[in-house]
Design goal:
Layout lengths: L1 E2 L2 E2 L2 H42 L4 H27 L3 H18 L1 H16 L7 E4 L2 E8 L3 E5 L5 E5 H5 L3 E3 L14
Antiparallel strand pairs: 1-2, 3-4, 3-7, 4-5, 5-6
Helix pairs in contact: 1-2
Length: 184
């Protein structure tokens, strides 16, 4: 058969089409099974983290991070099965990760500090603390910032990186407190 000046062999085209279809189906199977296995692995890891008394916020974040990494591995495996050169994809992902890391360096430092606060627990929700010049009751600890409510009912939002680089006085961590009263 001739098409636009080229000789086409129907048998070769059929064989090539079947080969490509088989590779695509195998890649889809790898992706579906890999995604299912990644979800199961994350569920097991999440259960183990909670059983080891890791904070729920950190456990869910680490679970999502593990899932993301496993999903990238699954996608790369599926793409390589189709015939895509994955070395260039990995290089592009590496460059994108560096660019994102540089653009979000302040947020990433707040995030790392948030993980440290949640893990080491210098204070918990409900504690009365003094952080730098701010004093109040801790109402919420997130991965990026901490919320304090003052005696005047003001909400103070402090970035977690500021908390890890300054002194923190936790007034409620010990059961007894000494009060100095000067009587004239």
């Amino acid at each position: 058969m001739e098409f636009l000046g080229f000789t086409l062999d129907v048998a070769t085209l059929t064989t090539s089409a079947l080969s490509i279809a088989a590779k695509v189906m195998l890649a889809l199977l790898i992706f579906i099974v890999g995604r299912w296995l990644a979800k199961k692995a994350v569920a097991v890891a999440h259960r183990l983290m909670l059983r080891s008394r890791l904070d729920e916020t950190v456990a869910s974040f680490l679970g999502r991070l593990i899932y993301g990494v496993l999903l990238v591995v699954v996608v790369l495996a599926a793409l390589s099965k189709v015939g895509v050169q994955t070395t260039s994809v990995v290089a592009i992902l590496g460059g994108a990760a560096v660019a994102i890391g540089l653009s979000l360096k302040d947020q990433l430092s707040n995030f790392a500090a948030g993980i440290m606060i949640i893990t080491f627990r210098p204070f918990v929700r409900g504690d009365y603390v003094q952080i730098s010049s701010h004093t109040g009751t801790v109402t919420e600890i997130t991965l990026l910032n901490t919320h304090l409510t003052t005696i005047n009912n003001h909400d103070i939002i402090i970035p977690n990186s500021d908390i890890t680089t300054s002194a923190v006085i936790n007034y409620t961590s010990l059961p007894n407190r000494r009060v100095d009263i000067t009587i004239g």
